[in-house]
Amino acid sequence: MSSEDNELLTRVENGAPMGEMLRNNYWFPAIIAQTLIPGGNPMPVRLLGENLVAFRSNDGRVGIFDEHCPHRRASLLLARNEDNALRCIYHGWKFGVDGEVLEVPTEPNDPAAFCKNVPLRSYPTREAAGIVWIWMGRGEPMRWPDFEFMNVPEGRVHTVHQRVRCNWVQDVEGGLDSAHVSILHSHWLRDVGIGDAGVDVAPTYEFDMQNSGYCYAALRKLRDGTFYTRVTQFVMPWYAFIAPEEMPEGDRLVIFSTPVDDTNTVHWMLRYNRVRTLKPSYVNPVDDPSNFPPAAPGNRDTVWGQDRDAMRRGHFSGFHHINTEDFAVAESQGPIADRSKEYLNSGDRAVVQFRKQLLQTAKEYAAGKKMSLAQHDEINYAEARAAAFILRPGEDWHAAYRDKGQAA
Question: 379 partner at 20 to 30 Å CA-CA among 179, 280, 328, 333?
Answer without folding.
Answer: 179
